[in-house]
Amino acid sequence: MEAFQLLSRGGARFHKQRFKSDVQLFTHAVTKPEKSVNAPVNQDSKLPPELDFFKYAQGGRAKRKAGNTDSSSSSAPCRPDVRNKRRKTNHATEDLDGNGDDGDDAPEDRYKIPHHLMSNLLDNHYKYPTGVQAHGMPILLERRDLAAISPTGTGKTLSYLFPIMSLLEAPISSLKGTEGNGVRAIVLAPTRELAHQIYNECLKLAVKRKWRVVLYSKATASTLRDKNARDKVDIVISTPLRLVASIQEGNLDLNNVRHLVLDEADRLLDSEFLAQVQEVISTCTHPEIQKSVFSATLPAGAEQLAMGILRNPIRIVVGLKDTPLPLISQTVTYVADDASKLPSLLTYFAQPYNPPLLIFTSTQPRATSLAEELTLNGIANVDCLHAGMTKKERDDAVSRMRRGESWVMVSTEVMARGMDFKGVREVINYDFPTSVQSYIHRIGRTGRAGRDGKAVTYFTDEDAPYLKSIANVLLQSGSSVPDWILKLPKPSKLKKKQMGKIKRAETVNAARKIGRNDAIKKRAMIAGSKRRKVKELRAPEELVSQSR
DNA sequence: AAAAAAC
């Protein structure tokens, strides 16, 4: 418990400006060498040195030369102090892994991080951890359950993959002992594309070891009908329904799963996915299972569900919950009615624009026909992606996007969450998003890993009732909104519903916090120009809190 | 409040 006060101390100064620089640190050295080299990390983020995993990763590879690890760190002098606190508090938390503890306080020793994992981290040019990585990874490595909320494009995937692979120690095939048989870790994601992307990240950390990581699909499921093959699998990445199908066929046993991650947790916990996810959870019967949930958004209802699933969880919030990054400059554009949208978009395309860009529509047919219209109007390299397409068509569209061959990608909600196309400079909401969460995730396809981005949202007269809630999101994240929009009447029913939820939740410790934060948020909206101040005050409270 | 996504 105290150990996490240390974490919170590190994060307390994690306000908007510094957050920006912190996220920039995530930059891969390959793409922007000049930035990562000169970035004054610890100075800015005041990261306790021992949480700076990636620095140790560099040191670890170079056999941790003293000069190497310390030269870049301005906070090196305070290290002994931090070290002592950390050591003391380690006893305060349950020492679940039973390794007593050791003399060395480098994370790789403290947490017994396998050498190959450290070197793979470095080989992938991860230089400095982002906020969610620095604060989330130690919690997971301590074998605690975790609810982590961190904005889009801040490296959540690595935050859970790295600790899982560290705690699993090595591929099951090379471990002889009490690890048991069968899948030891599962990551759930709401779309195939996202599962695939997570799988790719996982493979990067798995090189040079015989990790069996399985991207679960019809094809892989059938190869795993054989129990012997199944027993050799270390990690499964899957969408919920695919997993449930195999469970029900009796072709998958999850009684050896020690780590379960729900990525895009609020999506996975909404009504359509919930039953499936609950079935997966109840099939994971190992008593020491560690569960964690990750998302950029976690509405009160989803959070309550999540807290019910997790056991004695730590909750961390980096930046502001349910708020996009200030790096994304957002605007809203009035287009009267649906018929006016295409002309507006074509006018937009008549001017110079920055490809690749991502366009969101509300339905599959609209995505298809908009892509066709744009092509007919001479726009080059227009692509389309929605869940009505075949698996191959979907895979091809993603690869074209990854290779930079798509300049304009028209898509539905399926692309809204988690997808990391590094080049996307701009997102256009051709159709108005159906929730604040959807909005935040959609525009979060740009402004990733410290780069800036642009988001344009079309709205018609029909969208007017929902405009104000989106406008508030713009305000929260530092974009400006025309006055008249702010004067719109409140979407009263919606508001009342939310308030009701909060009231009910107030009996539980965890939810009391949500209520308070929402109250602060509301005040922030009213405060207008004082908004920024309020945000800064709020961050430390929110950053780490104990729940249940 | 409603579409999309999951097999």
UniProtKB/TrEMBL annotation:
PROSITE patterns: DEAD_ATP_HELICASE, HELICASE_ATP_BIND_1, HELICASE_ATP_BIND_2, HELICASE_CTER. Its EC number is 3.6.4.13. Pfam families: DEAD, Helicase_C. It comes from the Eukaryota. It is an enzyme of class 3 (hydrolase). SMART domains: DEXDc (SM00487), HELICc (SM00490). Residues 95-107 have a biased composition (Acidic residues). Residues 55-111 are annotated as: Disordered. GO terms for molecular function: ATP binding; hydrolase activity; RNA binding; RNA helicase activity. CDD domains: DEADc_DDX52, SF2_C_DEAD. Residues 100-396, 137-316 form the Helicase ATP-binding domain. InterPro entries: DDX52/Rok1_DEADc (IPR044764), DEAD/DEAH_box_helicase_dom (IPR011545), DEAD_box_RNA_helicase (IPR050079), Helic_SF1/SF2_ATP-bd_DinG/Rad3 (IPR014013), Helicase_ATP-bd (IPR014001), Helicase_C-like (IPR001650), P-loop_NTPase (IPR027417), RNA-helicase_DEAD-box_CS (IPR000629). GO terms for cellular component: cytosol. Residues 341-489 form the Helicase C-terminal domain. This is RNA helicase.
